[in-house]
Write a structure and sequence with these properties.
6 helices; about 75% helix; globular
């Protein structure tokens, strides 16, 4: 039996986790969940692995971090630092694969202003969401991410006839 493409697996996790957590929130007050160091290493490693091979590291990161119920700005800052470090760890692998071509660097330079602008807009959007609604929004976005990953997995499994 052929296995599904990698994006299909994080999609299932994303959908189930996001729906479960959203259901818990909608049913009442949620207390922060403490997790072990072992769980942190396991989910961090999973986030690093899926980030490297499929740019899908956000799902395992969120599964570990969201139940902690950190303050909105602390969670966003932690996420930014984690993925900045993760992306810097990818640099040697991408360099070894020859990804830093003149054309790629020119594209990156051209898109840099968009990245800065998007960061500013994203910061304003996040701060416009009340802390009470923040986690509900995050779980809805996680479910949408799962749906997108499911779509990508299905499209890879059943390519259109040409």
């Amino acid at each position: 039996m052929a296995s599904l493409p990698l994006p299909a697996r994080p999609s299932k996790i994303s959908l189930v986790f996001g729906a479960r957590q959203l259901w818990i929130i909608l049913r009442g007050v949620v207390r922060p969940h403490k997790s072990s160091d072992v769980a942190g290493v396991m989910w961090g490693t999973t986030a690093g692995f899926t980030s490297q091979i499929a740019h899908a590291g956000g799902v395992p990161f969120q599964i570990y971090m969201l139940p902690k119920r950190l303050e909105r700005d602390v969670l966003i800052g932690t996420s930014a630092i984690f993925f900045a470090a993760m992306n810097w760890m990818k640099v040697p692998a991408y360099a070894a694969l020859g990804q830093f071509t003149r054309a790629n660097m020119a594209t990156s330079l051209a898109l840099f202003p968009l990245a800065v602008g998007s960061t500013i807009v994203g910061t304003k959007l996040i701060r416009s969401v009340s802390p009470d609604r923040f986690y509900k929004l995050i779980y809805v976005l996680l479910i949408l991410t799962g749906l997108k990953l499911t779509w990508d997995g299905a499209a890879a499994s059943f390519p259109a006839a040409t």
